[in-house]
Amino acid sequence: MKLLGKMSWLELKLFLREPLTVLFALALPLLVLFVMGGVFGNEVDAEFYRGIGAMDYYVPAYVALVTASVGLISLPVHIAGNRELGVLKRYHASGMPTWIVVASSVVTMFVIALFSATLLVVVAKVVHDIVFPESMLGVVAAFVISGLAFAALGVLLGAVLPNARAAQALGVLLWFVMLILGGAGPPPEVLTGVMDPIGKITPLRHAIRAMQDGWLSLDAGLSWLIIGLVFVGATGAAIRFFRWE
Amino acid sequence: MPAPVVTVANLRKRYGNFTAVSDVSFDVAEGEIFGILGPNGAGKTTTVESLQGLRSIEGGEVSVLGFDPRTNAAEIRRRIGSQLQESALPDRMKVWEALDLFGSLRAGGRDWRELLGDWGLGHKSEARFGSLSGGQQQRLFVALALANDPQLVFLDEMTTGLDPASRRVAWELIRRIREQGTTVVLVTHFMDEAETLCDRLVVIDAGTVVAQGSPQGLIARYGGGARVCFSHGDGNLTWLRNVPHVTDVQRNRDRVEVRGDGPVLAYVAAALVERGIAPVDLRQERATLEDVFLALTEEEPE
Fold it and tell me: Which residue has the higher pLDDT, B105 or B25?
C-alpha cells in the first residue's frame, strides 16, 4: 500500500510536469461548457432534454465526459508511451508488481478527473446556476463506476496499442465519437438513422445516464448495469492483454 | 570455488522460426565478475533476460540464487539488480525520485541519499532524467540496479554509446560493485572491457557457447602463441630458430618478429645478449581477447 501511495504521488507529479496534458485535461471540459452553454443557455425547452434546463442536463454529462477523456486519452497514451520507452520493462525487471503500475495510473487518473470535474461544476454553478444533485450518493457512485469503466478501457487500449502516437490517435477518435453520439453533444433525441443505435453502444451514453440518474433523478434504465459490465469486461481483457514490452 | 549463484544448463529459446539461443550452459560463482561475450545477435541479451524471468524459457535447466525463473521470477527480481538494454525512465522523473522509488521496492533497500553520493550524482538529485548526459544516465541505472541491495546484478551493454572517458569511469563503478560483495554478470561486445574486468567469461556465437574460461586462459588457449618483437639493423638472425620455444622468425626490414610459445621471451632475450645484441625495444606482444574472439566467432569464408 505504501508503494502504491508513493507510485501514485510520483505519477501525479509527472503528470503535472507536462503542461500540455494538464491544460488538455482541465481546459477541454471548460471549453465544451463555454461553447454549449453559450449556444443553449440553461432555459427549459420541453422538446429536448426531457424538460430540463440545457445546462442542468449537460453538466452531469460533462462530468461523465471528463472520466471518458482522462480514461480514453490520458491513460492509454501514458501506458503505451511508457512501454514504448522501455519504462515498463524497467519497472518489471525491478520487481514492481503489475497491479501497482496499473493501480497508480488509475489513482492518478481519478485525482485528475475529480479535480477537472470539480472545476467544471463550480464554473457551471457560477455561470449557469445549475441545480445541485438530487442524490449526492448517486453522483459519487456514477463518478466512481464511470471512472473505473473508462480506466479499464484506457488500460486495455494502453495494453494493446504499440506506442503513444497510436494511443493518442485512437483515444481521441473514440472520445470524439462518444462525445458526439453518446449524449454529451447533440441530445440523443435528435440523433437520426444509425446514429442513435451507435450512440447506445458507446459506454459514455450509459455513464451519462447513470450520472443524470444521480444528479437529476432521470430514469437510467439498464445503464448502471451496462457501465458495470463494461468495467468488468474491459478489466478482464486488460489483464489478458497487458504486456510489459 | 564458492557455490554457484547462477547455473544454466542447455538453455534454449526460439522466437518463431528464429533460434536465438540453442545451447547455452555456464555457472556463475559468488563474488565474481562474469562476462557474457558475443557478436551482435548472438543471444547474449536473450540469455540474461531469460535468467531474470523476462523471457519464457523453452528448454534447459536454469537456477538463479536457487530459484527457477520459470516459477519464481518474483523472488529472483527481488534479490537481483538489473540494467537492461533498451529501457528508460520517464524524461520528467527526477534522479532522487527514481532512486527513492526503486529503493522502496524491497524492505531493507538502500537509502537513496547514500546511493546518490556513492555514484557521484549528489549534485544531480533534482535533475530530470531527460536532462542527464549518457554517462550520468548510466550511473543512475547502476545506482538503481543497486537500490534494492542485490546479491547479483546483471549489466547488459552498459558502456555502449559512452565516450572512452565515461567507459573508464563505468569500469571503475563495476569494480566497486564487486568490492561491495555483489556478483556481477556483464554482457558486452567490447573485448577490452571483458579482458579488464571479468574473472571468467563465456563466448557465445549464434546461440551456443563456443568457449569459456578466464580471459588469460582463453588467450593462452586460442591466442595463437606468443610474439616477441624487436628492431635489428642487419645480420643474419636465422640462428634464432634454434633457440628453445621458438617456432618461427620473420623479418620485415629492421623489424624482427619471433613466434613461439610459453617462456619464449626469456630464451630469446638471453640468446640475443649472449651474442652482444641488446635491442632497446624488445618486447612480447600479447595476444588479446580480441584475437581470441575473432578466431572463435569469425565466419568461415565460403
Answer: B25
Instruction: Verify that B145 and B263 share a domain, yes or no.
Output: no
B283-285 and B200-205 strand pairing: unpaired
Residue B170 · residue B190 · CB < 8 Å: no
Inter-chain contacts counted by CB atoms under 8 A, chains A and B: 59
Any residues with CB less than 8 A from the CB of A74 and at least 6 apart, and which? A15, A21, A24, A25, A109, A112, A154
> Can you give the pTM of this predicted structure?
0.82
Taking CA–CA distances from A81, the nearest residue in chain B reads: B90
Q: Where are the domains of chain A?
A: 2-241
Give the separation between CA B138 and CA B167, rounded to whole angstroms. Answer: 10
| B173 and B79 both lie in a single domain | yes
What is the distance between the alpha carbons of residues B135 and B21, in angstroms, rounded to a whole number?
A: 31
pLDDT in tens, A218-244: 888 899 999 999 999 999 999 898 888
Contact A95 B88 (CB under 8 A): no
Contact B225, B259 (CB under 8 A): yes
**Within a domain: B299:** no
Give the single-character DSSP code of A226. H
**B208 and B269 part of one domain:** no
- Closest Cα in chain A to B76: A95
- Rounded distance between C-alpha atoms, residue B23 and residue A27, angstroms: 58
Q: Is B207 exposed, middle or buried (0-12, 13-18, 19+ CB in 10 A)?
A: buried
Regarding whether B171 and B232 lie in a shared domain, the answer is: no
pLDDT at residue A204 in the model: 92
- Sign for the CA dihedral angle at B86, B87, B89, B90 comes to positive
Q: For residue range B112-161, what is the model confidence (pLDDT) as tens digits?
A: 888 888 788 889 999 999 999 888 888 898 888 888 889 999 999 888 87
Position B124, amino acid: K
C-alpha cell, B252? 620485415
